[in-house]
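Hello support,

Our group uses your service weekly, and this is the first time we've seen a run hang past the timeout. The protein is Large ribosomal subunit protein bL33c. I'm not sure whether the cause is the sequence or the server load. Input pasted verbatim:
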Amino acid sequence: MAKGKDARVTVILECTSCVRNDVNKGSMGISRYITQKNRHNTPSRLELIKFCPRCYKHTIHGEIKK
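Update from on-call engineer: The timeout came from a worker crash unrelated to the input. Re-ran successfully.
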């Protein structure tokens, strides 16, 4: 039988420094990563340090709504 709510959900991580600096989304875009998290272990928004090819450095990528 299928369960109502799965523990694992797919989330999108977006570079916070690109968003904060108001980068033109039409030119090169904003760095985004797709990953999964366990809803029961981490109910809050996920933040990871990932490489941003737009900023050319490691920055904080935060979870966004789909």
